[in-house]
Amino acid sequence: MQANPQASQELKRGLSNRHLQLIAIGGAIGTGLFLGAGKSIHLAGPSILLVYLIIGIMLFFVMRAMGELLLSNLDYKSFVDFSTDLLGPWAGFFCGWTYWFCWIVTGAAEIIAVAGYVQFWFPSLAPWIPALACMGLLVVLNLVAVKLFGELEFWFALIKVVTIIALVGTGFYMIATGFRSPAGHTASLSHLWNDGGVFPNGITGFFAGFQIAVFAFVGIELVGTAAAETADPRRNLPKAINAIPIRMILFYVLALVVIMAVTPWRQVVPEMSPFVALFLLAGIPIAASLINFVVMSSAASSANSGVFSTSRMLYGLAQEGHAPKSFEKLSRTAVPAFGLLVSCLVLLGTALLTYVVPSLIEAFTLITTLSAVLFMFVWSLILLSYIAYRRKRPELHAQSQYKMPGGVFMCWACLAFFAFVLVLLTLKPDTLQALLIAPVWFVLLGIGYWLKGRKAVA
Fold this sequence. Notes:
- With about 450 residues, the chain is an all-alpha fold.
- The chain is about 75% helix and about 0% strand.
């Protein structure tokens, strides 16, 4: 890693601990929790609690590995830098461009989602209008300064946190008071085990839960992308990562516990948000509008993350020689403006294309699934970088004040877990298609890397 000699060309550490904490929370809570929980409960029953716990624990170790690596050398701006340094230029190239592609696709999907949620209130409004308005707002705010990205993410994440805490509190109140639903079910924790046990759909249902739940965690690594622009990273980054297990319990496990305790798992409608259903049962008539607003803000949060992370990826790729040098230039406010604008044009073009050619929507759903598969590739490169770090830089590990628990052994355990999830993705036709398309992306990257090498030699 070569530091840029021009101070004006360095990213500014404008994110405070408050921003980083909420960015970590926002990354850990996706729209998949609000909308996908019903389907995952339907597939796995109460065992879905174990599914979320297992995935959360594994990703916590990935984040701890990333944390130790970033803090071992503060010149590392993101995982592109340490993968290049520890595994070789090919790893940084593949990691950075894959992560960029992941967020282009995810961000485009979320922009489309925002447009759909706006139509809930304004059904006659053409969908491209809110999509364009949302994208324009995020671009303008992100161009000003990184602190504004932090503020946006802070408030977006806070909305999600308040909603989940309200759901958990309301649910436990209904359990404590013995709430009885119109269908004649009394709210009770016993619903978690008295209807077919914890694994009512057997091991097959339990495994099926992983296929959906793993997608709810994409973006959890965003805290690593923001590390280069965080004030006092040695203090703030560990605090953000260490809080992940508590967030997993509060935001995923407790939320699902109260949902299944108030409404027996067999009665949960997979097509409907269980959050809406619980608030309606509690007698809150504006539940549908309330959750629509929350999910819209969650989608906007993800799109905001896409705008931020894609521009920083292009900046990091340019610094390592994996992308044109024009992406390395910063604005007067220390924002990689050119990379931000290029990424946003690609992101918006991808989103608007689905409105021009409606048949692309099914393909777009497939690519979104592919994005989640590729996120697992990025997480795996973080783990492989840590294994290489322990072999090549033992003295840095010895000096580290933030060592990864379990070290190399847990890295291999997490890699085995990701391999297990990939095997599970072969069990369903739609996820199998996404898995079979993934090699195409890596072939394209391989060709790009080969052409880059030839150009360098010439």
